[in-house]
Amino acid sequence: MFSLFSNKEKRNLNAEKSILCPCKSGETLNQCCGPYHEGKTAPTAEILMRSRYSAFVLGLSEYIWQTWHPDTRPDLDILGGLNLKWINLEIINTETGLENDDQGKVHFAASYVTSNKGKTLDENSDFVKEDDAWLYVDGDCTVIDISRNDSCPCDSGLKFKRCCLKNS
Ligand SMILES: [Zn+2]
Ligand SMILES: [Zn+2]
User: Fold this and answer.
1) What residues have CB less than 8 Å from 101, skipping those under 6 apart?
2) Structural domain spans, the chain
3) Which protein residues have a CB closer than 5 Å to ligand 2 (ion)?
4) Residues ≥6 apart with Cβ < 8 Å to 131
5) What is the pTM of this model?
6) Which of 19, 91, 120, 123 is 20 to 30 Å from the Cα of 106, by its Cα?
7) Are 99 and 43 spatial neighbours (Cβ–Cβ below 8 Å)?
8) pLDDT of res. 79
9) Ligand nearest to the CA of 42
10) 161 CA to middle of ligand 2, Å?
11) Residue 140: what pLDDT?
12) Distance in Å, CA 24 to ligand 1 centroid
């Protein structure tokens, strides 16, 4: 069939059509967290962390549950019922958690809006690798309120009340 585009151009068009990955990597979802949601094994704790955040944004509660250690995970129903609008992820630091490790720590800040209020979850998470798959275990976390006049965590340069709070 006649086509205006070469295969390479078609691939680029498809990539452009894909949404930007919610984990804020700057890549499209297909190039970033999407393949892990579809069963690819995350090579590092940080990549698993990013893909779990993206799954929270996209409402993929089963993926969040599957990548949560069986000893610490909540019921799948509880995860599915969370009504949080996630607006930003920032990875602050990672320790170990690389391909040859079996334990890792990821320090991140994730912001969300719930009941018209903004919160930032600052968490030091522990991850373990079992049977070649990274799993989230648990974390030490602090929840910080976002004030309406704070600059928005999403880095738009706007005040929170004029940005993600308004759009939530
Ligand atoms: Zn991603
Ligand atoms: Zn914003």
Assistant:
1) 45, 129
2) 21-162
3) 152, 154, 156, 163-164
4) none
5) 0.87
6) 19
7) yes
8) 86
9) 1
10) 9
11) 97
12) 6
